[in-house]
Amino acid sequence: MLRRAQRHIGTGERAALLRLLGLTALLPVLCLIAARAAQLPYQTGLVTLYGMAVLTGTACLLHLAYTRYDDPAVRTLRRRARGHEEFPALAERPRVSFLLAVKDEAANVEACVRSMAASDWPDLQIVVADDGSRDGTGAILDALAAELGITVVRLETNAGKKAALVRACALADGDILVFTDSDCVIAPDAVGRCVRAMVRHPELGAVSGHCRALNAHTGLLTRIQDVWYEGQFRIAKAAESAFGAVACVSGPLAAFRREAVWNYLPAWADDRFAGAPFRFATDRQLTGYVLGQAWRGKALKRRYAHSPFVAGHDHPERRWLVGYSRSARVWTNVPDRWRPFLHQQVRWKKSFIRNLFFTGGFMWRRGPVPALLYYGHALWVLAAPALVFWHLVWAPLHLAAGLTVLYLCGVLLKGSLWGLAYRLDNPGDRRWRYRPLMSLLSCCVLAWLLPYAALTLRRAIWTRTPA
Q: DSSP label at 255?
């Protein structure tokens, strides 16, 4: 009956109906939150208010992702930015430069490069920077260059991922720059989808693809991460994309318009924080240059005016939008052991801290909803260690175990909401049950990593994983 009715209503009415259904589905959760708020004792009110805010924020995030998001690669966005006609249009089939930096990736690099070369985009340049590999990666790249015609840039000494990618960019002649990571496999149509999104929407300065775990079946840890990746892209990035404000175009598949990032590549490679070179934040920081160049661009270009990336062509600062394409698929090998997984999480926490000092300085200018999404997430991350300590350490020691139980139930409820979303998007896939486990892992283990990351910010290693 619903399908029959939908055939007789227009696109706008169908969107309104979808929003109404989404709000109806979320109403029981919001009622439970409101009822609990009325019963709060004063002494625990502020602490529990934080938990309710997280649940409310999760409900709103789901609502935005399922009622406001359009895949820019599939259809023209229902809501376009004011003044989108003023952005320079791309050619119907723009030249694309596909870029990769590797270091000691003999086990993964061939599969990655072959998937890059298998892209169905007709006008494609592939440039790979070998950042001082010593494990045979160079020989594999030489063989691939002879077979596939890719360009290999050899760095004799390790310079770091960002510097290596900028060296590759110096040879790039594409109108669009696409980055990936060396442990990824890209769907043949993924690059084309990102490009078509930009051609259809000239106001998009960058587009993120949709990432899942390539090795999801290896074990419990990889299955948990796979389900978590699905939600972080399908829900979090979709909600941000509805307002053109995706805060992180993730490394597994990141597409940028040349004029949106070209002048800022030297600042990216030479990024410094807390008085020292900062070799993390590869994805978040580059995205920040796209989102914030209207307010930070002139100063950055003056600082690096001597660089050929700036002196060669001065692109005007624009208020670019940043989007996400759910249909542009990429798969990445996630850590399958706890030690590498925790190392990865520490790197991501460092990227978050550094980027908060940059993007956090202007995100309020992007509009109320993008600002709320960004600063709300930042507040949740920053407050998590203190809230975890309060509920899991202080409360049991002061004979307030009920507060601990209530907190853990809230964590499981939040994870179950994300798990329900996974099940709706992936009918018949029973892995939705792993999502509550990720919520427990985040609060019981990962939250403690933020203080450690802050204390070890200057400890840098070569990293390729997305921030």
A: E
3-state secondary structure of 102: strand
Residue 408 domain flag = no
Same domain for 153 and 51, yes or no, is: no
User: In total, how many domains does the chain have?
Assistant: 2
Residue 39 lies in domain: 1-69
* Cα four-point dihedral sign 412, 418, 420, 426: negative
Predicted TM-score (pTM) of the model is 0.88
What is the Cα 451 distance to its own chain's centre? 22
Same domain, 124 and 152: yes
Are the CB atoms for 254 and 283 separated by under 8 Å?
A: yes
Q: Do 198 and 151 fall into the same domain? A: yes
pLDDT in tens, 199-242: 999 999 999 999 999 999 999 999 999 999 999 999 999 999 99
CA-to-CA distance for 361 and 308, rounded, in angstroms?
28
Q: Residue 77 is which amino acid?
A: L
pLDDT tops 50 at residue 59 = yes
In angstroms, rounded to a whole number, what is the distance separating the alpha carbons of residues 326 and 314?
A: 32
Can you read off the two tokens belonging to residue 26?
């979320």
Which of 331, 355, 379 is at the close of a domain?
Answer: 355
pLDDT tens digits, 385-441: 998 998 899 888 988 788 888 888 888 988 998 999 999 999 999 999 999 999 999
Q: Are 467 and 283 in contact (CB under 8 A)?
A: yes
